[in-house]
UniProtKB/TrEMBL annotation:
Residues 7-367 form the Aldehyde dehydrogenase domain. Keywords: Oxidoreductase. InterPro entries: Ald_DH/histidinol_DH, Ald_DH_N, Aldehyde_DH_dom, Aldehyde_DH_Superfamily, ALDH_KGSADH. The keyword Transport does not apply. This is Aldehyde dehydrogenase (NADP(+)). Gene3D superfamilies: Aldehyde Dehydrogenase, Chain A, domain 1. Pfam families: Aldedh. CDD domains: ALDH_KGSADH (cd07129).
């Protein structure tokens, strides 16, 4: 643990000192430590949720579900590392008769990159903050973590960090394996420190790009996994009342402050959009996370409402209290596809808050090209179509365009409510992320690993995961001597 008075170099030194001892911990010991953290968070749930409600304005049910997601995410990672498949351990036996020249004994495994700096997010004070997915993935990989707390929930960050650090210490993990810093300048200086070997971030495109550039400009550049902006377009071949009501519910949940909020809904030009106003009027006002986000939303809302050719379906409202906090209700406008193209500067930027744009189109054949032109990188893209349309292949080109530009393609659902599971992909091409990887699900561990091969190494000097006796019991793939003579036989 640390506070704002701690010298950044000391934080980096503590993390660096912990790197090798932590990497050497067995998967079972590290998994038990992650479960201990999960148990500690659950034990302090009431306290943490009370603080989070006060600092963020998010509701108790929302935060209760998010904290549950956070603790069970840690347990999922624990099982994943005990399983050991994430190490991708490969063993090639020495083979003097190898067809392209004698092969030495080669053994490759994924090893921790070293200390990771995680910039916490504002909109998920548990799941993407101090003990969230990036922290869990880095710890699971065997990397010490320094979290840069978000200024939007400082008290919650400090208390969560105390609980996490205490649980890791009680589980016997090395000192320095988890630390917290605060302050923008401290975060920048630590990102520049040579002892930090990877960065993670969830937040705005502007800030994420600045940090990514800093990481790339270091004398020794490091990988930086930034989750930035995404507008998550939805394409519908029909627009009945039920679909439009579900759209409003998805775009306004948590006041639209979700990275997977559907920012655009494409519907046929003759669709009756009158249910939008009724659905929007039924949504109670919700506080935005902090005054800065409120000001930014106010500006985006004004730009969208003022865009030429935009028809207001639900104007919504925005009020400011004496503390500078803003409270919003949903705003929805409609444009045609031609207007969206002509006024992309006003309309295409992410609106972080309860605001979305409905786009009318005349011919579904236009959609694949329009998508690739307007939405080059997204966390999600979604298709709503009737069963016959999904089965007859008419949407093949659209789905191909969505898959080429999105991390997750949904059918018949809504992108909010990201499931934490081994098969999840929460990432996407730029500008959705700086590096197209996943920050949700067990595949996220691999961001903080690097491949190392050992050639003709004695058993005593090999990592446990590559030894013949395999003391960790992890899966190992083998390439036996003589197998090269069979290459290509399975492709015939």
């Amino acid at each position: 643990m640390t506070d704002t008075t701690t010298v950044v170099s000391e934080v980096a030194a503590h993390a660096a000192a912990a790197a090798r001892p932590f990497a050497a911990t067995s998967p079972s010991a590290r998994g038990a430590a992650l479960v201990a953290v999960a148990d500690a968070l659950d034990a302090h749930a009431a306290e943490l949720i009370t603080v989070a409600m006060r600092e963020t304005g998010l509701s108790e049910p929302r935060l209760t579900g998010e904290l549950k997601r956070t603790s069970w995410q840690l347990r999922l990672f624990a099982d994943a590392i005990v399983d050991g498949s994430y190490l991708d351990a490969r063993i090639d036996a020495a083979d003097p008769a190898y067809v392209i020249g004698p092969r030495p004994d080669l053994r490759r495994v994924l090893e921790p990159v070293g200390p990771v700096l995680n910039f916490a997010a504002s909109n998920f004070p548990f799941a993407f903050s101090v003990a969230g997915g990036d922290t869990a993935a880095a710890l699971a990989a065997g990397c010490p973590v320094v979290v840069k707390a978000h200024s939007g929930h400082p008290e919650l960050s400090r208390r969560t960090a105390e609980i996490v650090a205490g649980a890791l210490d009680a589980a016997g993990m090395p000192a320095g394996v988890f630390q917290l810093i605060e302050g923008q300048q401290n975060g920048v200086e630590l990102l520049q420190d040579e002892r930090i070997r990877a960065g993670a971030f969830t937040g705005s495109t502007h800030v994420g790009r600045l940090l990514a550039d800093i990481a790339a400009a270091r004398p020794r550049p490091i990988p930086f996994y930034g989750e930035l902006g995404s507008v998550n377009p939805v394409y519908a071949t029909y627009a009945d009342a039920g679909l439009l009501q579900d759209f409003v519910a998805s775009m306004s949940g948590s006041a639209g402050q979700l990275c997977t909020k559907p920012g655009f809904l494409f519907v046929p030009a003759d669709a009756d959009l009158s249910p939008i106003a009724t659905a929007a009027e039924a949504v109670a006002e919700h506080r935005l996370l902090n005054p800065g986000i409120g000001r930014a939303f106010e500006g985006r809302r004004a730009a969208v409402l003022g865009a030429e050719g935009a028809t207001v379906l639900a104007e919504g409202a925005l009020r400011e209290d004496e503390d500078g906090q803003r409270y919003a209700t949903p705003t929805v406008v409609a444009v045609d596809l031609q207007t969206l193209r002509a006024h992309r500067e006003e309309l295409l930027e992410e609106s972080f808050g309860p605001l979305s744009v409905i786009v009318r189109y005349h011919d579904a054949a236009e959609l694949p090209a329009a998508h690739e032109e307007l939405f080059p990188g997204n966390l999600t893209s979604t298709v709503h179509a009737r069963a016959a349309e999904l089965a007859d292949g008419s949407l093949h080109q659209l789905v191909g365009a969505l898959a080429a530009t999105s991390g997750r393609v949904l059918f018949g659902g809504w992108p909010t409510g990201v499931s934490v599971t081994p098969a999840m992909q929460h990432g996407g091409p730029y500008p959705a992320t700086t590096t197209d990887a996943t920050s949700v699900g067990t595949a996220g561990i691999t961001r903080f690993l690097r491949g190392v091969a050992y050639q003709n190494a004695p058993q005593e000097l090999l990592p446990a995961s590559l030894r013949d006796d395999n003391p960790w019991g992890v899966p190992q793939s083998f390439s036996a001597a003589g197998s090269s003579t069979e290459w290509g036989s399975f492709a015939r």
